[in-house]
């Protein structure tokens, strides 16, 4: 029985080593997104592929969907920053008009923002109102991974 358990550990270690070098065909890093917490993990990290709920996706796609890097450390900072810039450009109107921009509620404790009409919009103890673009630019993520429409 002991030899079998050692064999299992060796296989798991090799799988983690293989996962640490996993790169998509486009050259982007595949990250593990914990869909419950909204955090993504880099290959070779402790929780890469190890959380109950989650899925693999390119880091750029994870950032575009509003997921954030574990401990604020992206796998490839240049890729994450480029994706964040793309999202901000999509949200920014041609001529910024603050009076017509949708306001979101940013929960300052969890760094999650809520859209108008949702359950926690303006209802958390600590927070502030801002535009969705401002919320993303300051490092907040959308509630449940769904941006405002």
What does this structure look like?
The chain has 149 residues and is an alpha/beta fold. The protein has helices spanning 2-20, 59-64, 77-91, 132-137; strands at 30-34, 39-41, 55-58, 68-69, 103-107, 112-114, 127-131, 141-142. It has two domains: 1-91; 96-149, no CATH class. The strands form two sheets. The protein has a four-stranded mixed beta sheet. β5 (103-107) and β6 (112-114) form a beta hairpin. It is globular. The model is unreliable at 17-25 (pLDDT under 50).
Name the features.
single chain, 149 residues, alpha/beta, 2 domains, 4-stranded mixed beta sheet, 4 helices, 8 strands, 19% strand
Give the topology, please.
Elements: H1 2-20, E1 30-34, E2 39-41, E3 55-58, H2 59-64, E4 68-69, H3 77-91, E5 103-107, E6 112-114, E7 127-131, H4 132-137, E8 141-142
Tell me roughly what share of residues is in helical segments: 25-40%
Q: Any idea how many domains? A: 2
- Structural class comes to alpha/beta
Secondary-structure element order, N to C: HEEEHEHEEEHE
> For the residues shown, what is the average pLDDT?
78
Brief characterization of the structure:
The protein is α/β, with parallel strands linked by helices and 149 residues long.
